[in-house]
Amino acid sequence: MESFNLQFLYCIMIIAIGYGLKRSNLIKEKDGEGLSRLLFNLTLPCLLIVTFNGITIQSSLIVLIIAGFVYGLIIASVGFLFFRKSPRKIKGMVRMMLPGLNIGLFAYPLVEVIFGHEGITYFAMFDVGNAFIIFGLSYFIASFYSEVEEVKLEAKTILVKMSKSVPLMTYLLVLILSIIGIRLPQPIIDVSEIISKANMPLSLLLLGIFLTFTFEKKNLKLMGHYLIVRYAVALAFGLACYLLLPFNEMVRLTIVLGVLLPASVSVLTYSVEFKYDKRFVGTLSNLTMVISFLLLWGAANFLL
Protein backbone atom coordinates (compact mmCIF):
# COMPACT_ATOMS: atom_id res chain seq x y z
CA MET A 1 0.00 0.00 0.00
CA GLU A 2 2.94 2.35 0.65
CA SER A 3 4.05 1.87 -2.97
CA PHE A 4 0.47 2.55 -4.14
CA ASN A 5 0.31 5.84 -2.22
CA LEU A 6 3.72 6.80 -3.55
CA GLN A 7 2.49 6.31 -7.13
CA PHE A 8 -0.50 8.56 -6.41
CA LEU A 9 1.88 11.17 -5.01
CA TYR A 10 3.95 11.03 -8.21
CA CYS A 11 0.78 11.53 -10.26
CA ILE A 12 -0.17 14.57 -8.17
CA MET A 13 3.32 16.01 -8.65
CA ILE A 14 3.12 15.67 -12.44
CA ILE A 15 -0.35 17.27 -12.48
CA ALA A 16 1.03 20.08 -10.31
CA ILE A 17 3.89 20.60 -12.78
CA GLY A 18 1.36 20.99 -15.61
CA TYR A 19 -0.66 23.47 -13.54
CA GLY A 20 2.50 25.37 -12.62
CA LEU A 21 3.57 25.61 -16.27
CA LYS A 22 0.17 27.14 -17.11
CA ARG A 23 0.20 29.56 -14.19
CA SER A 24 3.69 30.76 -15.13
CA ASN A 25 2.55 31.28 -18.76
CA LEU A 26 5.24 28.95 -20.07
CA ILE A 27 2.36 26.90 -21.49
CA LYS A 28 -1.09 28.32 -22.24
CA GLU A 29 -4.36 26.44 -21.88
CA LYS A 30 -4.93 26.65 -25.64
CA ASP A 31 -1.66 24.69 -26.07
CA GLY A 32 -3.36 21.89 -24.18
CA GLU A 33 -5.88 21.50 -26.99
CA GLY A 34 -3.13 20.40 -29.38
CA LEU A 35 -1.65 18.11 -26.73
CA SER A 36 -5.10 16.63 -26.15
CA ARG A 37 -5.47 15.80 -29.85
CA LEU A 38 -2.02 14.18 -29.82
CA LEU A 39 -2.95 12.01 -26.85
CA PHE A 40 -6.33 10.93 -28.20
CA ASN A 41 -5.18 10.30 -31.76
CA LEU A 42 -1.70 8.84 -31.21
CA THR A 43 -0.41 7.87 -27.76
CA LEU A 44 -3.71 6.42 -26.49
CA PRO A 45 -4.34 4.29 -29.63
CA CYS A 46 -0.75 3.04 -29.42
CA LEU A 47 -1.26 2.11 -25.77
CA LEU A 48 -4.40 0.16 -26.72
CA ILE A 49 -2.56 -1.67 -29.50
CA VAL A 50 0.16 -2.77 -27.08
CA THR A 51 -2.30 -3.65 -24.32
CA PHE A 52 -4.57 -5.84 -26.48
CA ASN A 53 -1.73 -7.53 -28.33
CA GLY A 54 -2.05 -11.28 -27.81
CA ILE A 55 -4.62 -11.18 -24.99
CA THR A 56 -7.41 -13.73 -24.72
CA ILE A 57 -10.87 -12.19 -24.50
CA GLN A 58 -12.70 -13.87 -21.62
CA SER A 59 -16.37 -13.61 -20.74
CA SER A 60 -15.54 -11.52 -17.67
CA LEU A 61 -13.96 -8.90 -19.93
CA ILE A 62 -17.09 -8.72 -22.09
CA VAL A 63 -19.04 -8.03 -18.88
CA LEU A 64 -17.00 -4.84 -18.48
CA ILE A 65 -18.23 -3.54 -21.85
CA ILE A 66 -21.81 -4.19 -20.75
CA ALA A 67 -21.18 -2.59 -17.34
CA GLY A 68 -19.76 0.60 -18.90
CA PHE A 69 -22.77 0.88 -21.20
CA VAL A 70 -25.41 0.02 -18.58
CA TYR A 71 -23.95 2.47 -16.05
CA GLY A 72 -24.24 5.26 -18.63
CA LEU A 73 -27.90 4.43 -19.23
CA ILE A 74 -28.68 4.28 -15.50
CA ILE A 75 -27.08 7.60 -14.53
CA ALA A 76 -28.61 9.29 -17.58
CA SER A 77 -32.05 8.05 -16.47
CA VAL A 78 -31.50 9.38 -12.95
CA GLY A 79 -30.42 12.70 -14.46
CA PHE A 80 -33.62 12.89 -16.52
CA LEU A 81 -35.69 12.47 -13.35
CA PHE A 82 -33.63 14.73 -11.08
CA PHE A 83 -33.39 17.70 -13.47
CA ARG A 84 -36.83 17.36 -15.05
CA LYS A 85 -38.01 20.76 -13.68
CA SER A 86 -34.90 22.68 -14.78
CA PRO A 87 -34.94 25.10 -17.75
CA ARG A 88 -34.41 23.43 -21.11
CA LYS A 89 -30.84 24.67 -21.59
CA ILE A 90 -29.84 23.56 -18.09
CA LYS A 91 -31.38 20.15 -18.74
CA GLY A 92 -29.26 19.67 -21.84
CA MET A 93 -26.07 20.91 -20.23
CA VAL A 94 -26.11 18.85 -17.03
CA ARG A 95 -27.73 15.77 -18.54
CA MET A 96 -25.11 15.51 -21.29
CA MET A 97 -22.37 15.71 -18.62
CA LEU A 98 -23.67 12.88 -16.43
CA PRO A 99 -23.23 9.66 -18.45
CA GLY A 100 -19.68 9.82 -19.85
CA LEU A 101 -16.46 8.99 -17.97
CA ASN A 102 -12.96 10.34 -18.59
CA ILE A 103 -11.07 7.07 -18.90
CA GLY A 104 -8.60 7.83 -21.68
CA LEU A 105 -6.87 10.82 -20.11
CA PHE A 106 -7.65 10.38 -16.42
CA ALA A 107 -7.80 6.67 -15.63
CA TYR A 108 -5.08 5.20 -17.83
CA PRO A 109 -2.11 7.03 -16.29
CA LEU A 110 -3.23 6.04 -12.78
CA VAL A 111 -4.13 2.48 -13.74
CA GLU A 112 -0.84 2.01 -15.58
CA VAL A 113 1.32 2.89 -12.58
CA ILE A 114 -0.82 0.87 -10.15
CA PHE A 115 -1.91 -2.24 -12.07
CA GLY A 116 0.35 -2.25 -15.15
CA HIS A 117 -0.82 -3.39 -18.61
CA GLU A 118 -3.23 -5.93 -17.10
CA GLY A 119 -5.15 -3.09 -15.51
CA ILE A 120 -5.19 -1.16 -18.79
CA THR A 121 -6.81 -4.18 -20.47
CA TYR A 122 -9.67 -4.23 -17.99
CA PHE A 123 -10.28 -0.48 -18.07
CA ALA A 124 -10.04 -0.48 -21.87
CA MET A 125 -12.88 -3.00 -22.05
CA PHE A 126 -14.93 -0.89 -19.64
CA ASP A 127 -14.19 2.13 -21.83
CA VAL A 128 -15.63 0.44 -24.93
CA GLY A 129 -19.12 0.57 -23.39
CA ASN A 130 -18.39 4.06 -22.09
CA ALA A 131 -17.36 5.22 -25.58
CA PHE A 132 -20.74 4.28 -27.04
CA ILE A 133 -22.38 6.31 -24.26
CA ILE A 134 -20.18 9.36 -24.88
CA PHE A 135 -20.47 9.44 -28.66
CA GLY A 136 -24.03 8.18 -28.75
CA LEU A 137 -26.18 9.02 -25.72
CA SER A 138 -24.36 12.17 -24.54
CA TYR A 139 -24.27 13.54 -28.07
CA PHE A 140 -27.98 12.76 -28.46
CA ILE A 141 -28.83 14.60 -25.22
CA ALA A 142 -26.68 17.62 -26.07
CA SER A 143 -28.26 17.87 -29.52
CA PHE A 144 -31.84 17.27 -28.37
CA TYR A 145 -31.85 20.21 -25.94
CA SER A 146 -29.73 22.48 -28.10
CA GLU A 147 -31.02 25.85 -29.29
CA VAL A 148 -28.87 25.60 -32.41
CA GLU A 149 -31.50 25.37 -35.13
CA GLU A 150 -29.29 24.00 -37.87
CA VAL A 151 -28.37 20.91 -35.85
CA LYS A 152 -30.13 17.82 -37.19
CA LEU A 153 -30.12 14.76 -34.99
CA GLU A 154 -29.94 11.66 -37.15
CA ALA A 155 -28.52 8.17 -36.64
CA LYS A 156 -26.16 8.89 -39.55
CA THR A 157 -24.81 11.99 -37.75
CA ILE A 158 -24.05 10.02 -34.59
CA LEU A 159 -22.47 7.12 -36.51
CA VAL A 160 -20.27 9.50 -38.51
CA LYS A 161 -19.16 11.19 -35.29
CA MET A 162 -18.35 7.83 -33.70
CA SER A 163 -16.41 6.71 -36.78
CA LYS A 164 -14.19 9.80 -36.48
CA SER A 165 -13.12 8.85 -32.97
CA VAL A 166 -9.66 7.32 -33.36
CA PRO A 167 -9.67 5.76 -29.85
CA LEU A 168 -13.09 4.16 -30.40
CA MET A 169 -12.10 2.77 -33.81
CA THR A 170 -8.85 1.48 -32.28
CA TYR A 171 -10.83 -0.20 -29.47
CA LEU A 172 -13.05 -1.97 -31.97
CA LEU A 173 -10.15 -2.97 -34.24
CA VAL A 174 -7.92 -4.46 -31.54
CA LEU A 175 -10.92 -6.09 -29.87
CA ILE A 176 -11.99 -7.81 -33.10
CA LEU A 177 -8.41 -8.88 -33.86
CA SER A 178 -8.08 -10.34 -30.35
CA ILE A 179 -11.36 -12.25 -30.65
CA ILE A 180 -10.43 -13.84 -33.99
CA GLY A 181 -6.85 -14.46 -32.85
CA ILE A 182 -4.96 -12.26 -35.33
CA ARG A 183 -1.81 -10.52 -34.07
CA LEU A 184 -0.41 -7.36 -35.60
CA PRO A 185 3.11 -7.44 -37.13
CA GLN A 186 5.86 -7.08 -34.52
CA PRO A 187 7.28 -3.80 -35.94
CA ILE A 188 3.87 -2.15 -35.39
CA ILE A 189 3.81 -3.43 -31.81
CA ASP A 190 7.38 -2.25 -31.16
CA VAL A 191 6.77 1.27 -32.50
CA SER A 192 3.44 1.49 -30.66
CA GLU A 193 5.13 0.46 -27.41
CA ILE A 194 7.70 3.26 -27.72
CA ILE A 195 5.02 5.89 -28.39
CA SER A 196 2.66 4.53 -25.71
CA LYS A 197 5.21 5.26 -22.96
CA ALA A 198 4.49 8.97 -23.43
CA ASN A 199 0.78 8.56 -22.69
CA MET A 200 0.95 8.49 -18.90
CA PRO A 201 3.14 11.58 -18.22
CA LEU A 202 1.57 13.65 -21.00
CA SER A 203 -1.95 12.82 -19.82
CA LEU A 204 -1.15 13.92 -16.26
CA LEU A 205 0.52 17.12 -17.50
CA LEU A 206 -2.57 17.85 -19.59
CA LEU A 207 -4.83 17.45 -16.55
CA GLY A 208 -2.73 20.08 -14.79
CA ILE A 209 -2.86 22.42 -17.79
CA PHE A 210 -6.65 22.23 -17.95
CA LEU A 211 -7.09 22.56 -14.19
CA THR A 212 -8.87 25.79 -13.20
CA PHE A 213 -10.69 27.10 -10.15
CA THR A 214 -13.13 29.82 -11.20
CA PHE A 215 -16.66 29.77 -9.81
CA GLU A 216 -19.77 31.88 -10.34
CA LYS A 217 -21.89 31.99 -7.19
CA LYS A 218 -25.13 31.74 -9.16
CA ASN A 219 -24.08 28.28 -10.39
CA LEU A 220 -23.02 26.78 -7.06
CA LYS A 221 -26.42 25.23 -6.27
CA LEU A 222 -26.69 23.62 -9.71
CA MET A 223 -23.12 22.34 -9.45
CA GLY A 224 -23.90 20.87 -6.04
CA HIS A 225 -26.96 19.05 -7.38
CA TYR A 226 -24.98 17.67 -10.31
CA LEU A 227 -22.16 16.41 -8.08
CA ILE A 228 -24.61 14.76 -5.65
CA VAL A 229 -26.35 12.90 -8.49
CA ARG A 230 -23.11 11.91 -10.19
CA TYR A 231 -21.30 10.48 -7.20
CA ALA A 232 -24.33 9.05 -5.37
CA VAL A 233 -25.24 6.96 -8.41
CA ALA A 234 -21.58 6.04 -8.99
CA LEU A 235 -21.05 4.84 -5.43
CA ALA A 236 -24.33 2.89 -5.37
CA PHE A 237 -23.69 1.21 -8.73
CA GLY A 238 -20.01 0.53 -8.03
CA LEU A 239 -20.55 -0.98 -4.59
CA ALA A 240 -23.47 -3.11 -5.81
CA CYS A 241 -21.32 -4.54 -8.62
CA TYR A 242 -18.35 -5.07 -6.31
CA LEU A 243 -20.39 -6.95 -3.72
CA LEU A 244 -22.76 -8.89 -5.97
CA LEU A 245 -21.01 -9.76 -9.25
CA PRO A 246 -19.55 -13.31 -9.37
CA PHE A 247 -16.36 -12.32 -11.19
CA ASN A 248 -12.71 -11.97 -10.23
CA GLU A 249 -11.39 -9.13 -8.08
CA MET A 250 -9.96 -7.11 -10.98
CA VAL A 251 -13.30 -7.03 -12.85
CA ARG A 252 -15.11 -5.76 -9.76
CA LEU A 253 -12.35 -3.27 -8.95
CA THR A 254 -12.50 -1.92 -12.50
CA ILE A 255 -16.21 -1.20 -12.19
CA VAL A 256 -16.13 0.34 -8.73
CA LEU A 257 -13.14 2.55 -9.58
CA GLY A 258 -14.30 3.21 -13.14
CA VAL A 259 -17.64 4.77 -12.22
CA LEU A 260 -15.87 7.20 -9.87
CA LEU A 261 -14.00 8.80 -12.77
CA PRO A 262 -14.65 12.44 -13.77
CA ALA A 263 -16.82 13.75 -16.59
CA SER A 264 -15.72 13.01 -20.15
CA VAL A 265 -13.66 15.71 -21.87
CA SER A 266 -16.00 15.39 -24.86
CA VAL A 267 -18.59 17.50 -23.03
CA LEU A 268 -16.36 20.53 -23.58
CA THR A 269 -16.51 19.92 -27.32
CA TYR A 270 -20.28 19.45 -27.19
CA SER A 271 -20.72 22.65 -25.17
CA VAL A 272 -19.05 24.56 -28.00
CA GLU A 273 -20.93 22.76 -30.78
CA PHE A 274 -24.37 23.18 -29.19
CA LYS A 275 -23.87 26.65 -27.65
CA TYR A 276 -23.98 25.74 -23.97
CA ASP A 277 -22.17 27.64 -21.19
CA LYS A 278 -18.52 26.67 -21.81
CA ARG A 279 -17.27 28.24 -18.59
CA PHE A 280 -19.82 26.33 -16.50
CA VAL A 281 -19.07 23.04 -18.24
CA GLY A 282 -15.30 23.56 -17.93
CA THR A 283 -15.43 24.50 -14.25
CA LEU A 284 -17.71 21.60 -13.36
CA SER A 285 -15.52 19.18 -15.34
CA ASN A 286 -12.51 20.36 -13.34
CA LEU A 287 -14.39 19.90 -10.10
CA THR A 288 -15.14 16.29 -11.02
CA MET A 289 -11.42 15.74 -11.69
CA VAL A 290 -10.44 16.90 -8.21
CA ILE A 291 -13.25 15.02 -6.45
CA SER A 292 -12.68 11.84 -8.50
CA PHE A 293 -8.97 11.89 -7.76
CA LEU A 294 -9.65 12.02 -4.00
CA LEU A 295 -12.38 9.36 -4.18
CA LEU A 296 -10.19 7.03 -6.24
CA TRP A 297 -7.36 7.37 -3.76
CA GLY A 298 -9.72 6.64 -0.85
CA ALA A 299 -11.49 3.75 -2.59
CA ALA A 300 -8.23 2.16 -3.74
CA ASN A 301 -6.72 2.39 -0.25
CA PHE A 302 -9.85 0.76 1.19
CA LEU A 303 -10.26 -2.00 -1.40
CA LEU A 304 -6.69 -2.96 -2.30
Automatic annotation (TrEMBL):
Its main location: membrane. GO terms for biological process: transmembrane transport. It is found in: Membrane. It is a multi-pass membrane protein. It comes from the Bacteria. GO terms for cellular component: membrane. Keywords: Cell membrane, Membrane, Transmembrane, Transmembrane helix, Transport. The chain crosses the membrane at residues 6-22, 34-55, 61-84, 96-116, 122-145, 166-186, 198-215, 227-245, 251-272, 284-303. InterPro entries: Mem_transp_PIN-like. PANTHER family: AUXIN EFFLUX CARRIER FAMILY PROTEIN, TRANSPORTER AUXIN EFFLUX CARRIER EC FAMILY. This is Malonate transporter. It comes from Bacillus weihaiensis. The lineage of its organism: Bacteria, Bacillati, Bacillota, Bacilli, Bacillales.
